[in-house]
Structure formats: structure tokens, C-alpha cells
Amino acid sequence: MLLVIDVGNTSSTIGIYRGETLIGHWRMSNAKERTSDETGMFLMSILNYVDIKPQEIKDVIICSVVPPAIHSLVNAIKKYFRKPPILVDIGIKTGINIKYENPREVGADKIVNAVGALKLYGGPVIIVDFGTATTFCAVSSKRDYLGGIICPGIKISAEALFEKASKLPRIEIAKPRHIIGRNTVGSMQSGILYGFTGQVDYIVSLMKKEMGEEGIKVVATGGMAKLIASESKTIDVVNPLLTLEGLRAIYDLNSGS
């Protein structure tokens, strides 16, 4: 079995694969003060929950965009699983040609998502990831990672609105009953949902034009993907576990599976 871990800015997503089948996935908040023992015991509790022994985990692969979190996590894996994890870094095989001016600037999560999207849906593809930031990545039919776009994320944008505008409340991000809001909460929900949907559709249309290929599929992932996709005219597929699928695909490339 394979343990895959995606460390994001806000939380980590953990999955366990038996062959090509994802048998479970969980989320863990990223606390800077969390020790390797706390992390290790959390992972042990997951294994216990699904009745898997640590020695049944053949390998562990990690993708992280938070360098400070790596040290504690790697130590936890070494101590509780008695093996070093595989880290998605610049030297790992991905099967993708990175056309960024400085390939080291590309976040590991973006490359992992690209690998997952190509494996599941083929290319050319645009990946929209609704995380702490909203990111757009373009991958050609020749498996070239062309680059992307980084925008403020939906949740941090909504939080900034609450913090900086003294009379606006903190709200649940949800679809309002009307596009023209009839109260403050509805007006904010409408602005967030339709504003970000419009952003996605406009940016994707420009990306498609610049990529100049036919049959570009648009794949959305991340916490807000389903909500935005419900109104978007350009999103074709929603896969909230795209990063986990990409991690498994990269593991296969590097293990000879």
C-alpha cells in the first residue's frame, strides 16, 4: 500500500492507495507547532481506523508547498514507518517538460496536479486549483507545462473583505437565492460566487486562446471547485482529489510500478 500526503498552506490531505484504488482520504490542519510525534500519532490513528498495520505501507510520497512543515513530517515518517519518504522535488521523474523560466519556482503541487490531470484526462488541459490561492496551470498535448496564473484565493479574499470593511460580516461562502442581493449577506455571497466564477471563465478563455490547441479540457480541484463549477461555463471536470491521484502517478513513474 502507498501513503500519499499533500501539504498545502492551510491543511494537509492524506490518502492511502491499495494498488490504483484510493481506500480512504483525510484532512489534517497545518499547525506550525505540531511535533513529529503528534504528526506520527495522527497517521497511526488513521491506519488504526482502517485496520492497516504500519508495516503494510510499502512507501510514502509527499508533496509540499510549505517548507517549514517538511522537517517534522519527514521525521514522523522515518520514526513511525521506519522508512524515508519520497519527496516531490525538482529531481523527481514526472514525465512533464517544464517551460517555466525558472523551473524551481513552480510549486510541487502544480506539477503533481498536472501529472494527475494528464493521466486521468489527457492533454491539452487547464487545471484550476481553488486553494489558499486560486491557480491556473496550462499543460499542452505534448506534456509541456507552459506556465500559469496565480490569484488571491476565495476564502482569503472573503476574509479580507470582512477584516477591512468595518460594517461587513463574516459569511458562509454559498450560492445566494438571487444574483441581486436583497441583504448584506446575500450581496456578499453573490459578489464572491459570481465574481470568482467570472474570473475563472474569463481567464480560462484567454488561456485557451493563447494555448492555441483544440479540445482543451478544464479540470477544477480544491475546496471551492464544486461551488464555482456549478456556475462556470468553462469547467469540464471537478476532481477534489486530483493531487492525490497525481502523487500516486508520480510514485509509479519513480518506482517502476
CATH superfamily of the largest domain: ATPase, nucleotide binding domain
Which CATH architecture of the largest domain is right?
2-Layer Sandwich
User: What count of domains describes the coordinates?
Assistant: 2
Oligomer: single chain
Beta strand %: 15-25%
**CATH topological fold name of the largest domain:** Nucleotidyltransferase, domain 5
Distance between the first and last residues' Cα:
12 Å
Number of E strands:
11
Uncertain runs: none
Helix content: 25-40%
Report what the structure shows:
- This protein has seven helices and eleven strands.
- Helices cover 39% and strands 25% of the residues.
- The chain folds into two domains: 2-87, ATPase, nucleotide binding domain (Nucleotidyltransferase, domain 5); 97-247, ATPase, nucleotide binding domain (Nucleotidyltransferase, domain 5), CATH 3.30.420.
- It has 257 residues and is an alpha/beta fold.
- Helix 1 packs across helix 2 and helix 3 packs across helix 7.
- Strands 6-9-8-7-10-11 form a six-stranded mixed sheet, sandwiched between helices. A five-stranded mixed sheet has the order 3-2-1-4-5, with helices on both faces.
- Strand 1 and strand 2 (11-18) form a beta hairpin.
